[in-house]
Amino acid sequence: MITNNILVSNATDYDKATFYRKTYLHVALAILGFIFVEYLLLSFVPTTAIAWMMGGYRWLFIIGLFWLGTTMSNRFAFNPSRNMQYLGLGIYVVLEAIIFLPMIAMAYFYSGGEMLSQAVAITLFMFTGLTAVVFFTKTDFSFLRTALVVGGFVSLGIIVVGAIFGFNLGLWFSVGMVVLASASILYQTSQIKDQYGTEQYVGASLQLFASIMLLFWYVLRILMSRRS
Predict the structure, then answer these.
(1) Burial level of 155, CB count in 10 A (0-12/13-18/19+)?
(2) All residues at 6 or more sequence positions from 119 whose CB lies less than 8 Å from its CB, including other chains
(3) How far apart (Å, rounded) are the C-alpha atoms in residues 129 and 144?
(4) CA 30 to chain centroid
(5) Residue 86 CB burial class (10 angstroms; 0-12, 13-18, ≥19)
(6) 145 versus 2: which is more confidently predicted?
(7) The dihedral sign for the CA sequence 14, 15, 16, 18
(8) pLDDT tens profile 186-226
(9) φ and ψ at residue 106, rounded to 5 degrees
């Protein structure tokens, strides 16, 4: 059970530093966990099953399961029980690995590890830069919440329509989603700095990990579109 959970903005410098260290350590562990689970999936899931996942209506089913799992993971990650928090983070990492499986497999088929390495480098560079903007400018990015909610619903609707009617969403949609993911990182980083409690580092790490993976997804899509 969590105790002594005070707002990070009201905490001492030592408690703030501890919270940030734990949050970003958990983000790093989530990324490593994602890599490990993705490696296992690529090693043991047959290529026919990966290809099956890419079908239009089947992909909608997978997105629906991902949405339900994400909702459950978020609830677990902010549960008073630390064990439930870790369960939520772990479930979300596995869900991300599953939904990334077809695209990671295609990227590896196209270029080996080159395209993936480029996407990782670009994503980490952008995440570091966006994080620095929040901490060094001390700007409150909570005003982005409405735009993120509206943008999220609009983009989900476009994705669903695209899957149903089988049309390519195109490069500019991916560019727009990179902008949306970047705004999400700004918003989430601002939130953990001003609105989270010092004991909510697991939930904070899940939110940041989700934004990083969204950014990585569309950076990789842009790179793949240049090879097609």
Answers:
(1) middle
(2) 107, 216, 219, 220, 223
(3) 18
(4) 10
(5) middle
(6) 145
(7) positive
(8) 999 998 888 888 889 999 999 999 989 989 998 998 988 87
(9) -65, -45
Q: Contact, 79 vs 85, CB < 8 A?
A: yes
Q: Which residue has the tokens 């995440």?
A: 127
At residue 178's C-alpha, the angle toward residues 203 and 120, to 5°, is 75
User: d(Cα 217, Cα 181) in Å, to the nearest integer?
Assistant: 10
> Structure pTM?
0.89
Reduced 3-state DSSP string for the chain: CCCCCCEHHHCCHHHHHHHHHHHHHHHHHHHHHHHHHHHHHHHHCCHHHHHHHCCHHHHHHHHHHHHHHHHHHHHHHCCCCHHHHHHHHHHHHHHHHHHHHHHHHHHHHHHCCHHHHHHHHHHHHHHHHHHHHHHHHCCCCHHHHHHHHHHHHHHHHHHHHHHHHCCCCHHHHHHHHHHHHHHHHHHHHHHHHHCCECCCHHHHHHHHHHHHHHHHHHHHHHHHHHHC
Question: How open is the CA angle 153-155-157, to the nearest 5 degrees?
Answer: 70
